[in-house]
Design goal:
The complex is a heterodimer. Chain A has a two-stranded antiparallel sheet. The two termini of chain A are 46 Å apart. Chain A has a single domain, classed as Orthogonal Bundle (ABC transporter involved in vitamin B12 uptake, BtuC), CATH 1.10.3470. By secondary structure, chain A is mostly helical. In chain A, 75% of the residues lie in helices and 1% in strands. Chain A is globular, with a radius of gyration of 25 Å. Chain A contains 17 helices and two strands. The N and C termini of chain B lie far apart (77 Å). The longest helix of chain B is centred in the C-terminal third of the chain and has 18 residues. In chain B, helix 5 packs parallel to helix 6. Chain B is globular and about 70 Å long. The chains are: A mainly alpha, B alpha/beta. The interface between A and B is large, with 49 and 63 residues.
C-alpha cells in the first residue's frame, strides 16, 4: 500500500469514526447528541431545556416570596405571616393592614425590584462585555446617577432632609437624568465606527472617575447636614422609600425585563465575539445598543429608587452563573437572586443591629465573601 | 427594498467579487484598487508575508471589515446592501483563533450556526437539530458533543468551530488561518475536512494559510498578496515559483514536486548557518 493510499484510508476511517462509535453503542446519532436537550420552542434559538437553571430559578423566586412576607412581618411590631398574607390580598382591615400596605410593603417591594433590575442589568452587561467586571457601573450609570443625586441634595435649596427631597421627586429625577447622560457620554466617547466592549470598559472607567471627582467636590463644599444626607444616599438605602418609589421601578421592570429576556438568544450569539456573531447573521452593533439601553434603563431605575446599592449587579450574575453551570449568567435567575439578596440584606439592616444600617453596606458584606467562597470552591472543582 | 434578482443559479456570476477594493485600518490602506473574482465550487487560498493584508482581505469579503473604497459583491449583489442575516445564509466566516465562553458545549456552539435560519416566526426546529448533529458527525465530534469546548484538544476545538460554520449551511466558507496552533497531523485533519466539504457539498472555500506546501496541496487556486496588491494568481503549480517566493516572501527556496501528490513543495535553500548536511549529522554527533 502506497503512502497516499494509507493516507486516504486513514482519512476515511476518521470520517467514519463518529458513525461507527454510535453503531457500537447502538445509539442513534440523533438520540446521542440530543440527549437531555428537548427543544422548548420559545424564541429564535429556542430555549434549551436546562433543568438546573429552571429549578434554581424556581427556588430563588420561592425565596423571594418568603422574604417578601418576612420583610413585611418583621419590624418594630411583629405581624404574623398569616395576617401579612391576608392583608396582601385585601382580606384584612385595621392597624395591621395599614402597617403592611402603607409602611412596610413599599419598602419591601422596592427592595425586591431594585434587586431584580440590578441583577438582570448586571447579567446583561457582563454577558455583552464578556467580562465579569463588566457591571452597569462601568458604563457610567452609577457615577452619573450619583452626581445627579448629590447635586440635588447639596445644591437643592433649603431642605437637606433626604425624604423631603425624595417625596418632591427631586433625587430620583436628578439621579435618572445623571445616569442617562453619563451612559450616553460613555457610549458616545466609546464610538468609533461602532462600539467595542473593551473600549466601552476603558471609556466607562474614565468617565466614572471624572464624575466621581465631581461628586467628591460637591460633598466637600456641601454643608455638613447635606453631606451626611448625600453620603447616606451614596451607599444605597431603602429607608426613605414609599409607593412613589415603587411605581416607576415596577413600570421599568415590567417593560425592560421581558425585553431583556427576548434578547437572550442574541446574547448567546454575541458572546462568540463580533466576527463570529456577524458571520452567523447577528447585527452586532444594533444588538449591543439594545442591550446597553436596557441595562442603563434598568440600573437607572434602581439607583434612582434606592441609590447605588453596592455589589448586587456585580455579584449576583456571577453567583447565578456558578449555580446554573451555564456559559453566561441566566437573566431571570440573576434577577431573582438579586431580589433575594437585597431583601435579605434589608431585613438584616433593619433588624439585626440596634441602629439602621444602609442596605448597600449589607449587600456588599454578604455578597463579596459569598462570591469569593464560590470562586474558591470552583477552583477546587477545576483542579480535582 | 428592491427585489434582488436570483443569481444563485447563474454559474457565470462569481460567488464573491471585489471591485476596486481598498481595505486597511485607520485610513492606511493595506490593499488598494483590488479586483478579484472567486469562482463557485473552488478552494482558493490567500498567501503572503506577514502584514500583506490576506486576513484583512478575507474580513472585507466576509463583511466584518468595511472597505475604505470599492465594493464586495456576493452572488452579484453588493454585500453591504443585504441584511446580515440574508448574507449569513450564503456566506459563513471563521475568524482566526475564536474563543468560546467557558461552559459552552460542542452542541451549544454548533447550534448557534443555525441562527440565520431562525426567527421569531420560525424558531428552533427538529430540522435545525438534525443539521447541527450532522455537522457534528461530519467533523467527527459526536463522541464529544456534550463536552465543554475548552476541554477539547486543539484539533477537536478547531473542528468544533468548523462544525458551527458547516451547520450554517452556507454555500461559501471563509476560513482565516484554520490551522493556526495545530500540529501537522491536526492541520491535515482540518484541511482534509475542508477539502471534503468542497468535494461532497460543493462548498466554495476561501481561506488564509501560512504553510505554502499545505496550501499548494489542498487548494485549486492560490492568490499571493504583496505590496498592496496581487503578486500572483493561479494554480499552485503556476504560482509557486522560486521567483515569486523571492519577490513576495523574500524567501530563497527551491520548488520540487511533492513525492505523494505531485503538488509543488517548498524547500528553502541553505545559507551559511545550515552548515551541516543532514546526511552527515549522525557522523558529526559521533552517533554513527
Amino acid at each position: 500500500m502506497s503512502a497516499a493510499e494509507q493516507a486516504r484510508t486513514r482519512t476515511e476511517a476518521q470520517a467514519r469514526t463518529g458513525t461507527e462509535a454510535q453503531a457500537r453503542t447502538g445509539a442513534h446519532p440523533r438520540a446521542h447528541a440530543a440527549a437531555g436537550r428537548r427543544g422548548v420552542v420559545v424564541g429564535p434559538v429556542g430555549l434549551a431545556w436546562r433543568p438546573r437553571v429552571f429549578w434554581y430559578t424556581v427556588a430563588a423566586l420561592g425565596a423571594v416570596g418568603v422574604l417578601i412576607v418576612l420583610g413585611v412581618a418583621i419590624g418594630s411590631t411583629w405581624i404574623a405571616p398569616a395576617t401579612v398574607l391576608r392583608s396582601l390580598f385585601g382580606l384584612e382591615t385595621g392597624p395591621d393592614a395599614f402597617i403592611v400596605s402603607t409602611l412596610r410593603l413599599p419598602r419591601v417591594l422596592t427592595g425586591a425590584l431594585v434587586g431584580l433590575t440590578l441583577g438582570v442589568a448586571g447579567a446583561l452587561t457582563q454577558t455583552f462585555t464578556r467580562n465579569p467586571l463588566g457591571t452597569p457601573d462601568i458604563i457610567g450609570v452609577t457615577s452619573g446617577a450619583s452626581v445627579g443625586a448629590v447635586a440635588a441634595i447639596v445644591l437643592g435649596g433649603g431642605s437637606y432632609s433626604v425624604s423631603a427631597i425624595v417625596l418632591g421627586g427631586g433625587i430620583p429625577v436628578a439621579a435618572t437624568i445623571g445616569a442617562l447622560l453619563a451612559a450616553a457620554a460613555v457610549y458616545g466617547f466609546g464610538w468609533r465606527g461602532g462600539v467595542q466592549s473593551y473600549r466601552l470598559i476603558l471609556v466607562g472607567i474614565g468617565v466614572s472617575a471624572t464624575l466621581d471627582a465631581v461628586t467628591s467636590y460637591l460633598l466637600v463644599r456641601a454643608k455638613i447636614t447635606a453631606a451626611a444626607a448625600a453620603s447616606q444616599w451614596l451607599v444605597g438605602s431603602l429607608s426613605s422609600t414609599s409607593w412613589s418609589s415603587v411605581w416607576p421601578l415596577l413600570m421599568v421592570a415590567a417593560i425592560a425585563v421581558p425585553l431583556a429576556l427576548a434578547t437572550s438568544a442574541a446574547l448567546g450569539i454575541g458572546q462568540l465575539g463580533d466576527e463570529v456573531a456577524t458571520g452567523v447573521g447577528l447585527a452586532v452593533q444594533r444588538h449591543r445598543l439594545v442591550v446597553i439601553a436596557l441595562a442603563v434603563v434598568l440600573t437607572a431605575a434602581a439607583v434612582a429608587a434606592a441609590g447605588p446599592v453596592g455589589f448586587v449587579a456585580f455579584v449576583v450574575p456571577q453567583v447565578g452563573l456558578r449555580l446554573a453551570g451555564t456559559n453566561r449568567p441566566p437573566l431571570l435567575l440573576a434577577g431573582a437572586l438579586g431580589a433575594a439578596l437585597v431583601l435579605a440584606a434589608d431585613l438584616l439592616a433593619r433588624s439585626a443591629f440596634p441602629w439602621q444600617v444602609p442596605v448597600g453596606i449589607i449587600t456588599t458584606v454578604i455578597g463579596a465573601p459569598y462570591l469569593i467562597w464560590l470562586l474558591i470552591r470552583h477552583r477546587k472543582e477545576m483542579s480535582r | 427594498m428592491t427585489p434582488t434578482p436570483d443569481t444563485t443559479t447563474d454559474a457565470t456570476v462569481p460567488v464573491l467579487e471585489a471591485r476596486g477594493l481598498a481595505v486597511g485600518y485607520d485610513r492606511h490602506p493595506v490593499l488598494s484598487d483590488l479586483d478579484l473574482r472567486i469562482e463557485r465550487g473552488t478552494v482558493t487560498t490567500f498567501l503572503g508575508a506577514n502584514g500583506c493584508g490576506k486576513s484583512t482581505l478575507l474580513k472585507a469579503f466576509g463583511r466584518v471589515l468595511k472597505p475604505q473604497a470599492g465594493e464586495v459583491h456576493l452572488d452579484g449583489t453588493p454585500i453591504r446592501r443585504e441584511s446580515n442575516r440574508a448574507v449569513a445564509k450564503k456566506l459563513a466566516i471563521l475568524p482566526q483563533s475564536p474563543v468560546a465562553p467557558a461552559g459552552t458545549s460542542v452542541l451549544d456552539l454548533v447550534m448557534r450556526g443555525r441562527n440565520p435560519h431562525q426567527s421569531w416566526a420560525k424558531p428552533w426546529t427538529a430540522d435545525d437539530a438534525d443539521v447541527a448533529e450532522q455537522a457534528i458527525a461530519a467533523t467527527g465530534l459526536t463522541e464529544v458533543a456534550h463536552r465543554d469546548v475548552a476541554s477539547l484538544s486543539g484539533g477537536q476545538r478547531q473542528r468544533a468551530w468548523i462544525a458551527l460554520v458547516v451547520a450554517q449551511q452556507a454555500e461559501t466558507l471563509l476560513l482565516d488561518e484554520p490551522t493556526t496552533y495545530l500540529d501537522l497531523a491536526h492541520q491535515l485533519e482540518v484541511l482534509r475536512l475542508v477539502r471534503r466539504l468542497n468535494r461532497e457539498q460543493g462548498s466554495t472555500v476561501v481561506m488564509v494559510l501560512h504553510d505554502l506546501t499545505l496550501a499548494a496541496r489542498y487548494s485549486d487556486r492560490l492568490v499571493v498578496l504583496h505590496e498592496g496588491g496581487v503578486a500572483a494568481d493561479g494554480t499552485p503549480a503556476d504560482v509557486l515559483t522560486p521567483e515569486l517566493l523571492e519577490r513576495a516572501f523574500g524567501l530563497h527556496a527551491r520548488v520540487v514536486a511533492d513525492p505523494v501528490t505531485g503538488a509543488p513543495m517548498i524547500v528553502p535553500e541553505a545559507d551559511e548557518h545550515d552548515v551541516v548536511r543532514h546526511d552527515e549529522l549522525a557522523g558529526a554527533l559521533n552517533l554513527g
